[in-house]
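Ticket #4471: structure export looks truncated?
Reporter: QA, pipeline team
Priority: medium

Steps to reproduce: submit the single chain below to the structure queue and open the exported record.
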Amino acid sequence: MQRVIGGLKPYLLLTLLCLAMFLPGLAAVPPIDRDESRFAQASHQMLESGDYVRIQFQHESRAKKPVGIYWMQAASAHLLGAEQSIWAYRLPSVLGGLLAVLLTFHFGQALFGRPAALMGAALLAASFILVSEAHQAKTDAMLLACIVAAQGVLGRFYMAGKGIGKRPHNGEILLFWLAMGVGILIKGPIMPMIPLLTIAALWIADRKIGWLHGIRPIVGMIIAAAIVAPWATAVSSATGGQFIGQAVKSDLLPKLLGSQESHGALPGYYLLLSLATLWPASLFAVPGLVRAVKSRHAAGLRFCLAWIVPAWIVFEIVPTKLPHYVMPTYPALALLAGIAIAADDIDLRSRWFKAFAMLWALVGVAIAAAVVIAPMRLGNGLTALSLPAAAAALTTGLLPTILALRGRLQAAVATAVVGAMLTYASIFTGVLPHLDRIWLSRTIAAALPPHTPAVLSGFTEPSLVFLLGTDTRLADGHSAALYLLNTPGAVAVVELGDEPPFLATIAEAKRSVHLVTSTEGFNYSRGRPAHLNVWELEPKP
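Actual output as written to the record:
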Protein backbone atom coordinates (compact mmCIF):
# COMPACT_ATOMS: atom_id res chain seq x y z
CA MET A 1 0.00 0.00 0.00
CA GLN A 2 2.79 2.44 0.90
CA ARG A 3 4.23 2.20 -2.62
CA VAL A 4 1.07 3.53 -4.26
CA ILE A 5 -0.17 6.24 -1.90
CA GLY A 6 2.60 8.79 -2.43
CA GLY A 7 2.48 11.86 -4.69
CA LEU A 8 0.30 11.65 -7.80
CA LYS A 9 0.35 7.87 -8.02
CA PRO A 10 -3.11 7.41 -6.46
CA TYR A 11 -4.66 9.84 -8.94
CA LEU A 12 -3.07 8.02 -11.87
CA LEU A 13 -4.08 4.62 -10.50
CA LEU A 14 -7.67 5.71 -9.92
CA THR A 15 -7.88 7.30 -13.37
CA LEU A 16 -6.75 4.08 -15.04
CA LEU A 17 -9.14 2.10 -12.86
CA CYS A 18 -12.08 4.34 -13.80
CA LEU A 19 -11.31 4.13 -17.50
CA ALA A 20 -11.14 0.35 -17.24
CA MET A 21 -14.51 0.36 -15.45
CA PHE A 22 -16.38 2.97 -17.50
CA LEU A 23 -15.16 2.66 -21.11
CA PRO A 24 -15.76 -1.02 -22.05
CA GLY A 25 -19.05 -1.34 -23.92
CA LEU A 26 -19.61 2.41 -24.13
CA ALA A 27 -20.17 2.20 -27.90
CA ALA A 28 -21.35 -1.40 -28.05
CA VAL A 29 -24.45 -1.09 -25.86
CA PRO A 30 -27.31 0.49 -27.88
CA PRO A 31 -29.31 3.52 -26.64
CA ILE A 32 -31.22 2.56 -23.50
CA ASP A 33 -34.89 3.40 -22.95
CA ARG A 34 -36.25 5.58 -21.74
CA ASP A 35 -34.35 8.27 -19.88
CA GLU A 36 -31.01 7.92 -21.62
CA SER A 37 -32.52 8.07 -25.10
CA ARG A 38 -34.63 11.09 -24.17
CA PHE A 39 -31.56 12.94 -22.87
CA ALA A 40 -29.46 12.04 -25.91
CA GLN A 41 -32.22 12.92 -28.38
CA ALA A 42 -32.89 16.29 -26.73
CA SER A 43 -29.15 17.06 -26.79
CA HIS A 44 -28.99 15.99 -30.45
CA GLN A 45 -31.88 18.32 -31.27
CA MET A 46 -29.95 21.24 -29.80
CA LEU A 47 -27.24 20.57 -32.37
CA GLU A 48 -29.79 20.22 -35.15
CA SER A 49 -31.77 23.35 -34.32
CA GLY A 50 -29.09 25.61 -32.86
CA ASP A 51 -31.48 26.30 -29.95
CA TYR A 52 -29.45 25.78 -26.78
CA VAL A 53 -32.02 27.33 -24.46
CA ARG A 54 -35.16 25.24 -24.85
CA ILE A 55 -35.03 21.50 -24.13
CA GLN A 56 -37.22 19.50 -26.47
CA PHE A 57 -37.91 15.89 -27.37
CA GLN A 58 -39.14 16.21 -30.94
CA HIS A 59 -41.78 18.99 -30.70
CA GLU A 60 -42.53 18.48 -27.02
CA SER A 61 -40.97 20.60 -24.27
CA ARG A 62 -38.89 18.40 -21.96
CA ALA A 63 -39.39 20.27 -18.71
CA LYS A 64 -37.75 17.62 -16.54
CA LYS A 65 -34.20 18.71 -15.72
CA PRO A 66 -32.22 21.93 -16.21
CA VAL A 67 -29.97 22.38 -19.20
CA GLY A 68 -26.52 21.55 -17.81
CA ILE A 69 -26.14 17.94 -18.93
CA TYR A 70 -27.69 18.68 -22.34
CA TRP A 71 -25.03 21.30 -23.02
CA MET A 72 -22.30 18.88 -21.98
CA GLN A 73 -23.66 16.08 -24.15
CA ALA A 74 -24.17 18.36 -27.15
CA ALA A 75 -20.64 19.74 -26.80
CA SER A 76 -19.19 16.23 -26.54
CA ALA A 77 -21.01 14.96 -29.64
CA HIS A 78 -20.19 18.08 -31.68
CA LEU A 79 -16.51 18.29 -30.76
CA LEU A 80 -16.01 14.61 -31.54
CA GLY A 81 -17.98 14.77 -34.78
CA ALA A 82 -20.19 11.92 -33.60
CA GLU A 83 -23.63 13.50 -33.42
CA GLN A 84 -25.38 10.27 -34.45
CA SER A 85 -23.46 8.02 -32.02
CA ILE A 86 -24.75 7.30 -28.53
CA TRP A 87 -21.25 6.87 -27.07
CA ALA A 88 -20.47 10.54 -27.64
CA TYR A 89 -23.43 11.55 -25.48
CA ARG A 90 -22.26 9.17 -22.75
CA LEU A 91 -18.80 10.68 -22.37
CA PRO A 92 -19.89 13.45 -19.93
CA SER A 93 -21.11 10.67 -17.63
CA VAL A 94 -17.72 8.95 -17.91
CA LEU A 95 -16.07 12.25 -16.98
CA GLY A 96 -18.50 12.77 -14.10
CA GLY A 97 -17.80 9.31 -12.70
CA LEU A 98 -14.04 9.86 -12.99
CA LEU A 99 -14.22 13.24 -11.23
CA ALA A 100 -16.41 11.81 -8.46
CA VAL A 101 -13.84 9.10 -7.74
CA LEU A 102 -10.82 11.43 -7.85
CA LEU A 103 -12.56 14.00 -5.62
CA THR A 104 -13.57 11.27 -3.17
CA PHE A 105 -9.91 10.39 -2.79
CA HIS A 106 -8.75 14.01 -2.73
CA PHE A 107 -11.08 15.15 0.02
CA GLY A 108 -11.23 11.77 1.76
CA GLN A 109 -7.60 12.24 2.79
CA ALA A 110 -8.62 15.07 5.11
CA LEU A 111 -11.16 12.81 6.80
CA PHE A 112 -9.31 9.50 7.12
CA GLY A 113 -5.83 9.68 5.58
CA ARG A 114 -4.51 8.48 2.23
CA PRO A 115 -4.73 4.68 2.57
CA ALA A 116 -8.39 4.73 3.62
CA ALA A 117 -9.25 7.38 1.01
CA LEU A 118 -7.58 5.37 -1.76
CA MET A 119 -9.41 2.16 -0.88
CA GLY A 120 -12.69 4.02 -0.50
CA ALA A 121 -12.31 5.77 -3.86
CA ALA A 122 -11.37 2.49 -5.58
CA LEU A 123 -14.44 0.79 -4.12
CA LEU A 124 -16.61 3.68 -5.29
CA ALA A 125 -15.18 3.34 -8.81
CA ALA A 126 -16.08 -0.36 -8.76
CA SER A 127 -19.61 0.09 -7.43
CA PHE A 128 -22.27 -1.32 -9.72
CA ILE A 129 -24.48 1.77 -9.73
CA LEU A 130 -21.69 4.21 -10.62
CA VAL A 131 -20.40 1.96 -13.41
CA SER A 132 -23.96 1.69 -14.72
CA GLU A 133 -24.56 5.45 -14.60
CA ALA A 134 -21.19 6.17 -16.22
CA HIS A 135 -22.37 4.08 -19.18
CA GLN A 136 -25.53 6.16 -19.70
CA ALA A 137 -26.17 9.62 -21.12
CA LYS A 138 -27.94 10.94 -18.04
CA THR A 139 -27.42 13.45 -15.24
CA ASP A 140 -26.43 11.34 -12.27
CA ALA A 141 -22.71 10.64 -12.70
CA MET A 142 -21.90 14.30 -13.36
CA LEU A 143 -24.21 15.37 -10.52
CA LEU A 144 -22.28 13.03 -8.22
CA ALA A 145 -19.03 14.79 -9.12
CA CYS A 146 -20.58 18.14 -8.14
CA ILE A 147 -21.92 16.72 -4.88
CA VAL A 148 -18.55 15.20 -3.91
CA ALA A 149 -16.80 18.51 -4.66
CA ALA A 150 -19.21 20.45 -2.45
CA GLN A 151 -19.27 17.84 0.32
CA GLY A 152 -15.49 17.54 0.22
CA VAL A 153 -15.04 21.25 0.89
CA LEU A 154 -17.72 21.10 3.58
CA GLY A 155 -15.83 18.24 5.21
CA ARG A 156 -12.65 20.31 5.21
CA PHE A 157 -14.50 23.10 7.01
CA TYR A 158 -15.86 20.66 9.59
CA MET A 159 -12.52 19.00 10.27
CA ALA A 160 -10.81 22.38 10.65
CA GLY A 161 -13.57 23.41 13.06
CA LYS A 162 -12.61 20.37 15.15
CA GLY A 163 -8.97 21.44 15.09
CA ILE A 164 -7.95 18.83 12.51
CA GLY A 165 -6.24 20.20 9.42
CA LYS A 166 -6.30 23.63 7.81
CA ARG A 167 -9.38 25.56 6.79
CA PRO A 168 -10.20 25.47 3.08
CA HIS A 169 -8.38 28.06 1.00
CA ASN A 170 -10.05 30.47 -1.40
CA GLY A 171 -9.77 28.08 -4.34
CA GLU A 172 -11.65 25.36 -2.45
CA ILE A 173 -14.33 27.78 -1.32
CA LEU A 174 -14.75 28.84 -4.95
CA LEU A 175 -14.96 25.16 -5.92
CA PHE A 176 -17.81 24.68 -3.42
CA TRP A 177 -19.93 27.40 -4.99
CA LEU A 178 -19.02 26.49 -8.55
CA ALA A 179 -20.05 22.92 -7.83
CA MET A 180 -23.27 24.20 -6.32
CA GLY A 181 -24.10 26.28 -9.39
CA VAL A 182 -23.18 23.60 -11.93
CA GLY A 183 -25.02 20.93 -9.90
CA ILE A 184 -28.18 23.04 -9.83
CA LEU A 185 -27.86 23.56 -13.57
CA ILE A 186 -27.68 19.76 -13.94
CA LYS A 187 -30.40 18.54 -11.58
CA GLY A 188 -31.96 21.43 -9.74
CA PRO A 189 -32.74 21.14 -6.00
CA ILE A 190 -31.04 17.77 -5.43
CA MET A 191 -27.66 19.54 -5.47
CA PRO A 192 -28.19 21.93 -2.53
CA MET A 193 -30.29 19.36 -0.67
CA ILE A 194 -27.34 17.11 0.21
CA PRO A 195 -25.07 19.81 1.72
CA LEU A 196 -28.01 21.47 3.51
CA LEU A 197 -29.09 18.19 5.11
CA THR A 198 -25.47 17.53 6.14
CA ILE A 199 -25.15 20.97 7.73
CA ALA A 200 -28.50 20.61 9.49
CA ALA A 201 -27.57 17.18 10.88
CA LEU A 202 -24.22 18.42 12.21
CA TRP A 203 -25.85 21.52 13.68
CA ILE A 204 -28.39 19.38 15.53
CA ALA A 205 -25.78 16.86 16.68
CA ASP A 206 -23.11 19.37 17.77
CA ARG A 207 -25.35 22.35 18.56
CA LYS A 208 -22.71 24.44 16.83
CA ILE A 209 -22.39 25.90 13.36
CA GLY A 210 -19.41 28.19 13.79
CA TRP A 211 -17.26 25.76 11.81
CA LEU A 212 -18.93 27.12 8.67
CA HIS A 213 -17.36 30.53 9.21
CA GLY A 214 -15.54 31.62 6.08
CA ILE A 215 -17.70 29.82 3.55
CA ARG A 216 -18.81 33.24 2.21
CA PRO A 217 -22.50 32.55 1.59
CA ILE A 218 -23.39 35.91 0.02
CA VAL A 219 -20.55 35.95 -2.51
CA GLY A 220 -21.04 32.23 -3.06
CA MET A 221 -24.74 32.50 -3.79
CA ILE A 222 -23.98 35.27 -6.27
CA ILE A 223 -21.51 32.95 -8.02
CA ALA A 224 -24.02 30.08 -8.10
CA ALA A 225 -26.76 32.41 -9.31
CA ALA A 226 -24.48 33.74 -12.05
CA ILE A 227 -24.15 30.17 -13.35
CA VAL A 228 -27.87 29.33 -13.23
CA ALA A 229 -29.67 32.64 -13.77
CA PRO A 230 -28.74 33.40 -17.41
CA TRP A 231 -30.24 30.15 -18.69
CA ALA A 232 -33.19 30.31 -16.27
CA THR A 233 -34.00 33.80 -17.53
CA ALA A 234 -33.55 32.82 -21.16
CA VAL A 235 -35.71 29.69 -20.95
CA SER A 236 -38.44 31.56 -19.07
CA SER A 237 -38.46 34.17 -21.81
CA ALA A 238 -38.41 31.56 -24.60
CA THR A 239 -41.26 29.53 -23.09
CA GLY A 240 -43.39 32.36 -21.74
CA GLY A 241 -42.43 31.46 -18.17
CA GLN A 242 -43.81 27.92 -18.50
CA PHE A 243 -40.64 25.80 -18.29
CA ILE A 244 -39.97 26.07 -14.56
CA GLY A 245 -43.65 25.73 -13.71
CA GLN A 246 -43.91 22.61 -15.85
CA ALA A 247 -40.76 21.15 -14.27
CA VAL A 248 -42.24 21.58 -10.78
CA LYS A 249 -45.71 20.32 -11.70
CA SER A 250 -44.77 17.49 -14.05
CA ASP A 251 -41.52 16.21 -12.51
CA LEU A 252 -40.74 17.37 -8.96
CA LEU A 253 -44.16 17.31 -7.27
CA PRO A 254 -45.28 13.96 -8.75
CA LYS A 255 -42.10 12.35 -7.37
CA LEU A 256 -42.64 13.86 -3.94
CA LEU A 257 -46.38 13.10 -3.74
CA GLY A 258 -46.62 9.72 -5.47
CA SER A 259 -44.80 6.93 -7.29
CA GLN A 260 -44.18 8.62 -10.64
CA GLU A 261 -44.34 6.35 -13.71
CA SER A 262 -44.93 3.32 -11.44
CA HIS A 263 -41.48 3.68 -9.83
CA GLY A 264 -42.78 3.23 -6.30
CA ALA A 265 -41.57 1.14 -3.37
CA LEU A 266 -41.87 1.00 0.40
CA PRO A 267 -39.30 2.55 2.76
CA GLY A 268 -36.36 0.18 3.14
CA TYR A 269 -36.11 -0.35 -0.61
CA TYR A 270 -32.69 1.32 -0.90
CA LEU A 271 -31.34 -0.48 2.15
CA LEU A 272 -32.15 -3.88 0.68
CA LEU A 273 -30.99 -2.90 -2.79
CA SER A 274 -27.67 -1.45 -1.61
CA LEU A 275 -26.12 -4.92 -1.37
CA ALA A 276 -26.28 -5.02 -5.18
CA THR A 277 -26.06 -1.33 -6.18
CA LEU A 278 -22.96 -0.75 -4.03
CA TRP A 279 -21.47 -4.17 -4.94
CA PRO A 280 -18.66 -5.07 -4.32
CA ALA A 281 -18.07 -2.19 -1.89
CA SER A 282 -21.14 -3.27 0.11
CA LEU A 283 -19.06 -6.08 1.66
CA PHE A 284 -17.02 -3.47 3.56
CA ALA A 285 -19.49 -0.56 3.68
CA VAL A 286 -21.80 -2.24 6.18
CA PRO A 287 -19.09 -2.83 8.82
CA GLY A 288 -17.77 0.64 8.00
CA LEU A 289 -21.18 2.10 8.80
CA VAL A 290 -21.38 0.08 12.03
CA ARG A 291 -17.95 1.40 13.03
CA ALA A 292 -19.06 4.98 12.29
CA VAL A 293 -22.15 4.63 14.49
CA LYS A 294 -20.11 3.18 17.37
CA SER A 295 -17.41 5.87 17.10
CA ARG A 296 -19.67 8.71 15.96
CA HIS A 297 -17.85 11.31 18.04
CA ALA A 298 -14.81 11.04 15.78
CA ALA A 299 -14.98 14.04 13.44
CA GLY A 300 -14.52 12.27 10.10
CA LEU A 301 -16.98 9.51 10.95
CA ARG A 302 -19.47 12.06 12.28
CA PHE A 303 -19.30 14.03 9.05
CA CYS A 304 -19.87 10.94 6.91
CA LEU A 305 -22.88 9.94 9.02
CA ALA A 306 -24.31 13.43 8.60
CA TRP A 307 -23.78 13.06 4.84
CA ILE A 308 -25.44 9.64 4.67
CA VAL A 309 -28.25 9.36 7.22
CA PRO A 310 -30.55 12.37 6.63
CA ALA A 311 -30.29 12.12 2.83
CA TRP A 312 -30.94 8.37 2.96
CA ILE A 313 -34.04 8.92 5.12
CA VAL A 314 -35.37 11.50 2.66
CA PHE A 315 -34.84 9.17 -0.31
CA GLU A 316 -36.54 6.30 1.55
CA ILE A 317 -39.55 8.48 2.42
CA VAL A 318 -40.07 9.95 -1.06
CA PRO A 319 -42.61 7.65 -2.82
CA THR A 320 -40.88 7.63 -6.22
CA LYS A 321 -37.84 5.37 -6.07
CA LEU A 322 -35.21 4.45 -8.64
CA PRO A 323 -32.00 2.56 -7.78
CA HIS A 324 -29.68 5.50 -8.56
CA TYR A 325 -31.47 8.12 -6.44
CA VAL A 326 -29.48 7.25 -3.31
CA MET A 327 -26.11 7.31 -5.13
CA PRO A 328 -25.15 10.77 -3.70
CA THR A 329 -24.54 9.04 -0.36
CA TYR A 330 -22.28 6.31 -1.79
CA PRO A 331 -18.96 8.24 -1.70
CA ALA A 332 -19.36 8.62 2.07
CA LEU A 333 -20.23 4.93 2.44
CA ALA A 334 -17.19 4.00 0.35
CA LEU A 335 -14.97 6.13 2.58
CA LEU A 336 -16.39 4.44 5.67
CA ALA A 337 -15.52 1.12 4.05
CA GLY A 338 -12.00 2.39 3.41
CA ILE A 339 -11.38 3.49 7.00
CA ALA A 340 -12.78 0.24 8.39
CA ILE A 341 -10.29 -1.71 6.28
CA ALA A 342 -7.36 0.64 6.95
CA ALA A 343 -8.02 0.53 10.70
CA ASP A 344 -8.48 -3.28 10.65
CA ASP A 345 -11.77 -2.72 12.46
CA ILE A 346 -12.78 -5.34 15.02
CA ASP A 347 -16.19 -5.71 13.39
CA LEU A 348 -14.49 -7.16 10.31
CA ARG A 349 -13.59 -10.16 12.50
CA SER A 350 -16.93 -10.53 14.24
CA ARG A 351 -19.42 -13.38 13.87
CA TRP A 352 -22.08 -11.15 12.36
CA PHE A 353 -19.65 -9.99 9.68
CA LYS A 354 -18.83 -13.59 8.77
CA ALA A 355 -22.55 -14.31 8.36
CA PHE A 356 -23.03 -11.11 6.37
CA ALA A 357 -20.04 -11.89 4.12
CA MET A 358 -21.53 -15.25 3.18
CA LEU A 359 -24.84 -13.53 2.37
CA TRP A 360 -22.98 -10.91 0.35
CA ALA A 361 -21.25 -13.62 -1.69
CA LEU A 362 -24.67 -14.59 -3.06
CA VAL A 363 -24.77 -11.29 -5.01
CA GLY A 364 -21.83 -12.48 -7.13
CA VAL A 365 -23.53 -15.85 -7.57
CA ALA A 366 -26.73 -14.08 -8.68
CA ILE A 367 -24.83 -11.94 -11.21
CA ALA A 368 -23.07 -15.03 -12.57
CA ALA A 369 -26.42 -16.78 -12.95
CA ALA A 370 -27.95 -13.72 -14.64
CA VAL A 371 -25.25 -13.45 -17.30
CA VAL A 372 -25.75 -17.13 -18.15
CA ILE A 373 -29.56 -17.02 -18.19
CA ALA A 374 -29.96 -13.64 -19.98
CA PRO A 375 -28.52 -14.75 -23.35
CA MET A 376 -30.74 -17.84 -23.28
CA ARG A 377 -33.87 -15.80 -22.62
CA LEU A 378 -33.08 -12.53 -24.40
CA GLY A 379 -30.40 -13.44 -26.93
CA ASN A 380 -29.62 -16.26 -29.31
CA GLY A 381 -28.75 -18.78 -26.63
CA LEU A 382 -25.78 -19.31 -24.35
CA THR A 383 -22.49 -18.40 -25.99
CA ALA A 384 -18.86 -18.51 -24.95
CA LEU A 385 -19.03 -14.73 -24.40
CA SER A 386 -21.12 -15.26 -21.26
CA LEU A 387 -18.62 -17.57 -19.60
CA PRO A 388 -15.88 -15.01 -18.76
CA ALA A 389 -18.50 -12.70 -17.24
CA ALA A 390 -19.99 -15.50 -15.17
CA ALA A 391 -16.57 -16.69 -14.02
CA ALA A 392 -15.51 -13.14 -13.09
CA ALA A 393 -18.72 -12.45 -11.16
CA LEU A 394 -18.53 -15.74 -9.31
CA THR A 395 -14.87 -15.15 -8.41
CA THR A 396 -15.63 -11.59 -7.29
CA GLY A 397 -18.36 -12.89 -5.04
CA LEU A 398 -16.40 -15.75 -3.47
CA LEU A 399 -12.68 -14.86 -3.35
CA PRO A 400 -12.99 -11.50 -1.47
CA THR A 401 -15.30 -13.24 1.00
CA ILE A 402 -12.74 -15.97 1.68
CA LEU A 403 -9.89 -13.46 2.01
CA ALA A 404 -11.93 -11.18 4.29
CA LEU A 405 -12.89 -14.10 6.55
CA ARG A 406 -9.19 -14.97 6.82
CA GLY A 407 -8.39 -11.40 7.87
CA ARG A 408 -6.58 -10.48 4.63
CA LEU A 409 -8.61 -7.33 4.20
CA GLN A 410 -6.48 -5.33 1.77
CA ALA A 411 -6.13 -8.38 -0.47
CA ALA A 412 -9.91 -8.77 -0.29
CA VAL A 413 -10.36 -5.17 -1.47
CA ALA A 414 -7.88 -5.62 -4.31
CA THR A 415 -9.53 -8.82 -5.56
CA ALA A 416 -13.00 -7.27 -5.26
CA VAL A 417 -12.00 -4.24 -7.34
CA VAL A 418 -10.08 -6.19 -9.99
CA GLY A 419 -12.80 -8.83 -10.13
CA ALA A 420 -15.49 -6.18 -10.55
CA MET A 421 -13.47 -4.58 -13.36
CA LEU A 422 -13.28 -7.90 -15.21
CA THR A 423 -16.96 -8.61 -14.54
CA TYR A 424 -18.17 -5.27 -15.88
CA ALA A 425 -15.89 -5.39 -18.92
CA SER A 426 -17.18 -8.85 -19.80
CA ILE A 427 -20.82 -7.89 -19.27
CA PHE A 428 -20.73 -4.59 -21.17
CA THR A 429 -18.77 -5.96 -24.12
CA GLY A 430 -19.65 -9.65 -24.26
CA VAL A 431 -23.16 -10.01 -22.85
CA LEU A 432 -25.35 -6.88 -23.01
CA PRO A 433 -24.72 -5.97 -26.68
CA HIS A 434 -25.77 -9.48 -27.74
CA LEU A 435 -29.16 -9.53 -26.01
CA ASP A 436 -30.88 -8.95 -29.37
CA ARG A 437 -34.41 -9.53 -28.07
CA ILE A 438 -34.28 -6.37 -25.93
CA TRP A 439 -32.55 -4.20 -28.54
CA LEU A 440 -35.58 -3.97 -30.84
CA SER A 441 -34.77 -0.39 -31.86
CA ARG A 442 -31.29 -1.40 -33.00
CA THR A 443 -32.71 -4.23 -35.09
CA ILE A 444 -35.26 -1.97 -36.79
CA ALA A 445 -32.76 0.83 -37.46
CA ALA A 446 -30.22 -1.60 -38.93
CA ALA A 447 -32.82 -2.86 -41.40
CA LEU A 448 -33.59 0.58 -42.84
CA PRO A 449 -31.52 2.89 -45.07
CA PRO A 450 -30.35 6.08 -43.32
CA HIS A 451 -32.81 9.00 -43.27
CA THR A 452 -35.82 6.82 -44.13
CA PRO A 453 -39.03 8.69 -43.13
CA ALA A 454 -40.72 6.60 -40.45
CA VAL A 455 -43.80 6.50 -38.26
CA LEU A 456 -44.06 4.40 -35.08
CA SER A 457 -47.26 2.89 -33.75
CA GLY A 458 -47.48 0.83 -30.56
CA PHE A 459 -43.71 0.78 -30.09
CA THR A 460 -42.87 4.45 -29.53
CA GLU A 461 -39.68 4.14 -27.50
CA PRO A 462 -37.31 7.14 -27.64
CA SER A 463 -34.34 4.92 -28.55
CA LEU A 464 -35.89 4.35 -31.99
CA VAL A 465 -36.45 8.09 -32.42
CA PHE A 466 -32.76 8.68 -31.62
CA LEU A 467 -31.66 6.01 -34.11
CA LEU A 468 -34.06 6.93 -36.94
CA GLY A 469 -34.05 10.72 -36.58
CA THR A 470 -35.95 13.63 -35.05
CA ASP A 471 -38.62 13.67 -37.77
CA THR A 472 -39.78 10.16 -36.85
CA ARG A 473 -43.51 10.33 -36.12
CA LEU A 474 -45.27 8.77 -33.12
CA ALA A 475 -48.85 7.79 -33.85
CA ASP A 476 -51.66 5.26 -33.40
CA GLY A 477 -52.45 2.63 -36.02
CA HIS A 478 -54.90 4.78 -38.00
CA SER A 479 -52.62 7.84 -38.06
CA ALA A 480 -49.62 5.69 -38.98
CA ALA A 481 -51.49 4.44 -42.06
CA LEU A 482 -52.38 8.01 -43.08
CA TYR A 483 -48.73 9.04 -42.74
CA LEU A 484 -47.63 6.12 -44.89
CA LEU A 485 -50.24 6.97 -47.54
CA ASN A 486 -49.10 10.58 -47.74
CA THR A 487 -45.32 10.34 -47.34
CA PRO A 488 -43.30 9.02 -50.30
CA GLY A 489 -40.62 6.49 -49.36
CA ALA A 490 -41.83 6.18 -45.77
CA VAL A 491 -42.10 3.09 -43.59
CA ALA A 492 -44.39 2.33 -40.67
CA VAL A 493 -43.12 0.43 -37.65
CA VAL A 494 -46.25 -1.11 -36.17
CA GLU A 495 -46.58 -3.22 -33.03
CA LEU A 496 -48.76 -6.26 -33.57
CA GLY A 497 -51.57 -4.97 -31.35
CA ASP A 498 -51.88 -1.78 -33.46
CA GLU A 499 -52.05 -3.57 -36.81
CA PRO A 500 -55.85 -4.02 -37.17
CA PRO A 501 -56.65 -0.26 -37.44
CA PHE A 502 -53.46 0.29 -39.46
CA LEU A 503 -54.32 -2.37 -42.07
CA ALA A 504 -58.00 -1.36 -42.10
CA THR A 505 -57.11 2.23 -42.97
CA ILE A 506 -54.76 1.06 -45.74
CA ALA A 507 -57.53 -1.17 -47.13
CA GLU A 508 -60.07 1.69 -47.03
CA ALA A 509 -57.70 3.71 -49.22
CA LYS A 510 -57.65 0.76 -51.67
CA ARG A 511 -53.90 0.38 -51.28
CA SER A 512 -51.71 -2.49 -50.10
CA VAL A 513 -48.52 -2.70 -48.05
CA HIS A 514 -45.37 -4.80 -48.23
CA LEU A 515 -43.62 -6.29 -45.16
CA VAL A 516 -40.05 -4.95 -45.10
CA THR A 517 -38.89 -6.80 -41.99
CA SER A 518 -40.23 -8.22 -38.77
CA THR A 519 -38.78 -8.70 -35.31
CA GLU A 520 -39.99 -9.80 -31.92
CA GLY A 521 -38.57 -9.60 -28.45
CA PHE A 522 -39.15 -8.00 -25.08
CA ASN A 523 -39.99 -4.33 -24.48
CA TYR A 524 -38.25 -3.87 -21.13
CA SER A 525 -39.62 -0.34 -20.70
CA ARG A 526 -43.17 -1.70 -20.62
CA GLY A 527 -42.29 -5.11 -19.23
CA ARG A 528 -44.03 -7.08 -21.95
CA PRO A 529 -43.30 -8.98 -25.18
CA ALA A 530 -43.32 -7.03 -28.44
CA HIS A 531 -43.75 -8.05 -32.06
CA LEU A 532 -42.89 -5.36 -34.59
CA ASN A 533 -43.58 -5.31 -38.32
CA VAL A 534 -42.09 -2.73 -40.67
CA TRP A 535 -44.38 -1.89 -43.59
CA GLU A 536 -43.95 0.10 -46.75
CA LEU A 537 -46.59 1.06 -49.29
CA GLU A 538 -46.88 -1.00 -52.45
CA PRO A 539 -46.76 1.04 -55.69
CA LYS A 540 -50.11 1.81 -57.25
CA PRO A 541 -51.08 -0.72 -59.92
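Status: closed, not a bug. The export was complete when the record was re-opened. Leaving a note from the reviewer for reference: The chain is about 65% helix and 5% strand.
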